[in-house]
Amino acid sequence: MKVSLFDVGKGIRSFGTFSKSYWTSIPHYGLCTLSAVAKKAGHRVDLIDIRQVHSFIELEEKIHKQTPDVIGLSMRTCDELLLKDMAERIKKINSKITIIVGGVHVSIAWRRLKEVSQYDYLVTGEGEITFPKLLNYLEGNSSKDNFYLLAPKVIRGEPIDMDLSPPIDRELYPYEECIKFQNYPGIFEAPMITMLTSRGCPYHCKFCAPSKISSDEAFRGRKLKYASVDRVVDELILIRQKYPFKSIKFYDYSFTVNKMWVEEFCEKYKANGFDQKFIIQTRADLVRKNPDIIEALAKIGLKAIIVGYESGSDKVLQSLGKQTSAEDNLEAAKIIKKNNIVNIANYMLGTPFEEKEDVNLTVAQVREIKPDIVSVSFFTPIEGTELYDYTIENDLSLVQSANDLWTYSPEFERIKGIDYKYLTKAAQKILANNSPIPLFGYLSFLIYTKTKKYVAVRETLVYLYSKYISLKKQFIKWLQALEG
Ligand code: B12
Ligand code: SF4
User: Fold this and answer.
1) Using one digit for the tens of pLDDT, what is the confidence trace for 312-331?
2) At 435, is the pLDDT very low, low, confident or very high (cuts 50, 70, 90)?
3) Nearest CA to ligand 2 atom 4
4) How buried is residue 246: exposed, middle or buried, by Cβ count under 10 Å (0-12/13-18/19+)?
5) Which of 135, 180, 187 is nearest to 27 (CA)?
6) pLDDT at position 45, please?
7) What are phi and psi of 302, to 5 degrees?
8) Region 157-180: what's the mean pLDDT?
9) Which atom number of ligand 2 is nearest to the Cα of residue 221?
10) Rounded-to-integer distance, Cα 219 and Cα 125, Å
């Protein structure tokens, strides 16, 4: 079978953006995964990347040229409308192309999505086993009995053993172009690769995408599974041979849930000659509970941690089902600082039960923690989460369509009954703490409120900041030369 996988990027604003910046050149890990397993099963796979063409006309020409038998669409909630439009275009080009849709949003919303006539198959959950099986079936080499159908044309993806799936196919993309950018300028050097060592998250935060889906239809919510450390290190060795990378971004929801796994990883990462710096995401309570793990990771290259602190108010944290406390946040920040790790703090304002006092507590906490980088989102209700259900039941949502979900940056009002003017001021105060140059954070927010172009403003400021870092380095060298 000839298969084209479609990378939707950030939607139509992605046209022509590939290879222009870090954020517009990220390779889609899920598509690389599917490409690897489909190729292994003998199918021909290529890519249609919205970022690598300039218009719908060019996109349609590319589909014409690639003449795929099958097109694979990967759907997050924010992609729902654009991918429906794409499916209509694909079927107009050639109604014989089979369209298969997978991704996190299919697990959440397959009951609704199955009504879209252009979608030939929907696959929930993981795709590594089911996608190639489906391709074989379409080729006439396998029986329909091999699938667990949730409904006609809706197939439940078989869960995988992470150790048995092949390394992802990074060559689906012009990979060198993808990894040549610095993600956090001044902190990590390029090339930076991405890795995923686990699937799922065992926590049940009420605002977060995978937390409510039942384990039967499980995308990965509430279940956590790992690749073995050996499997991860072997893949890193393979990548190193081809793309001598300088840093790694781990995509795992919470890298430090399994203490024993992390201990073994630390030992084997070092023993295999890796000294590349890396970034992980984890939870404040896990950092607080296991400071020794953070110290061990720092010793082998952990340079930055993204923590979802979310709020400085215990009341709000409780209402989010976060199972962390304001004190966890403060203690975690101390541990991170002590280990000389860059603290990247995510906060969320505007949740349904938050009051002005809670907002003030969050601002105060940011001032106390003094994160190195801070990001503020406005709470956005996402289908498949408990707080989404709450906002729908109480008629609170102001989200008009999936197209409002491309970003959670503080650009739009998301739910009723919130004083967004107050939140905007609070966000300004939080971002003003965006060290090392607080003025950058403040300026970025000020310009954003005027232009509503938060991402563009942020990227410009990141660019200016990277220039500042390199000038600073040159200046230090110059001073040293003078002294020497
Ligand atoms: C890396 C990442 C990003 C990156 C890159 C995205 C990309 N294109 O790769 C960036 C930073 C750009 C990003 C952005 C956003 N992201 Co993001 N991101 C992730 C993250 C951390 C990893 C994704 C990943 O690679 N997973 C691993 C692969 C293997 O999984 P997968 O892609 O889902 O694919 C598997 C299955 O879904 C299935 N499958 C997928 N596609 C298909 C297609 C077919 C045909 C088939 C058969 C199967 C199939 O098979 C694959 C293998 O099993 C996830 C969290 C996570 N750990 O998964 C969040 C996540 C996907 N992101 C999320 C969100 C919300 C966003 C943002 C909206 C956030 C924001 N605040 O603005 C933006 C989206 C807009 C945009 N700017 O693109 C949510 C999505 C929730 C939802 N309901 O849609 C997630 C789940 C995080 C979360 N819990 O909230 N993100
Ligand atoms: S916010 Fe983090 S800890 Fe909570 S469910 Fe989502 S990924 Fe898991």
Assistant:
1) 999 999 999 999 999 999 99
2) very low
3) 205
4) middle
5) 180
6) 98
7) -65, 120
8) 95
9) 5
10) 4
Which atom of ligand 1 has the smallest separation from the CA of 72?
45
Question: Which segment of 44-53, 142-151, 273-282 scores lowest on mean pLDDT?
Answer: 142-151
Q: Please, where are the H alpha helices in 272-375?
A: 284-289, 291-300, 314-319, 326-338, 356-369
* Beta bridge mates, 376: 347
Mutate to test the pocket of ligand 1, among 10, 23, 29 (most ligand atoms within 8 A of CB): 29
Ligand nearest to the CA of 320: 2
Which-ligand-closest: CA of 382? 1
User: Taking CB atoms and a 6 Å cutoff, what residues make up the pocket around ligand 1?
Assistant: 10, 26, 28-30, 33-34, 72-74, 76-78, 100-105, 108, 123, 126-128, 131, 196, 208-210, 251, 253, 377, 382, 384, 405-408
- Give the residue among 307, 385, 328 at the shortest CA–CA distance from 109: 385
> For residue 306, which phi and psi values (nearest 5 degrees)?
-95, 120
Per-residue confidence at 179, pLDDT binned at 50, 70, 90?
A: very high
Token couple for 38: 């489909």
Please name the residue whose Cα sits nearest to atom 64 of ligand 1.
Answer: 76
Whole-angstrom CA distances from 180 to 20, 257, 260, 302, 461 are 10, 30, 33, 20, 19
Q: Is the pLDDT of residue 408 over 80?
A: no
Inter-CA distances, 323 with 308, 328, 347, Å: 12, 10, 15
Helices 29-40, 130-138: axis angle to 10 degrees equals 50
Q: What is residue 396's predicted lDDT score, i.e. its pLDDT?
A: 96
Amino acid code (one letter) for 55: S
The residue whose CA is least distant from atom 22 of ligand 1 is 251
Gyration radius of the chain over CA positions:
23
Residue with CA closest to ligand 1 atom 35: 30
Residue-wise DSSP of 181-198 = S-SSTTTSPSPEEEE--E
d(CA 76, ligand 1 centre) in Å: 6
Nearest to 103, CA basis, from 132, 133, 83: 83
